[in-house]
């Protein structure tokens, strides 16, 4: 499956952005979709995940500011980012893990740049 991310850009501190990530086909019923980010010189880190049953998990640094959601009919995951801070600047990657009887299949999108600066 291919994951197409969009919605990144340049925003001032305190501003908002909404990222979207669409899968190219129907997703296996048991799955986790998520967003990760990687700042220059840093390792890729978890931002938020959402399971196929809509259970969510957030990094402490984004709790209360970011909201992850999904539209299963569109095979799409979203990340609403409010109260953006300069330290949120990074390339954001969407991720899909399909959990199958034969094992897990892991997919990554191409990344979208988010820059928070005045």
Poorly predicted tracts of residues: none
Binned strand content: over 45%
Count up the helices.
0
Order of helices and strands: EEEEEEEEEEE
Structural Rg = 14 Å
Arithmetic mean pLDDT:
95
Structural class: mainly beta
How many strand units? 11
Largest β sheet strand count, sense and barrel closure: 7 strands, mixed
The first-to-last residue Cα distance is 37 Å
Q: What is the 3D shape? A: elongated
Helix content percent band: under 10%
Description of the molecule:
The chain is mainly beta and 118 residues long. It is built from no helices and 11 strands. A hairpin with a 6-residue loop joins strand 4 (31-38) and strand 5 (45-51). The chain is elongated, with a radius of gyration of 14 Å. The mean pLDDT is 95.
Structural key phrases:
mainly beta, 4-stranded antiparallel sheet, 118 residues, 7-stranded mixed sheet
């Amino acid at each position: 499956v291919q994951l197409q991310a969009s919605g990144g850009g340049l925003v001032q501190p305190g501003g908002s952005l909404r990222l979207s990530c669409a899968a190219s086909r129907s997703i296996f019923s048991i799955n986790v979709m998520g967003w990760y980010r990687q700042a220059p010189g840093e390792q890729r880190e978890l931002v938020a995940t959402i399971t196929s049953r809509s259970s969510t998990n957030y990094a402490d640094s984004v709790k209360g500011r970011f909201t992850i959601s999904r539209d299963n009919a569109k095979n799409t995951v979203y990340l609403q980012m409010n109260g953006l801070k300069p330290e949120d600047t990074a390339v954001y990657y969407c991720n899909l893990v399909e959990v199958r009887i034969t094992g897990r299949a892991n997919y990554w999108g191409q990344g979208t740049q988010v820059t928070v600066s005045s």
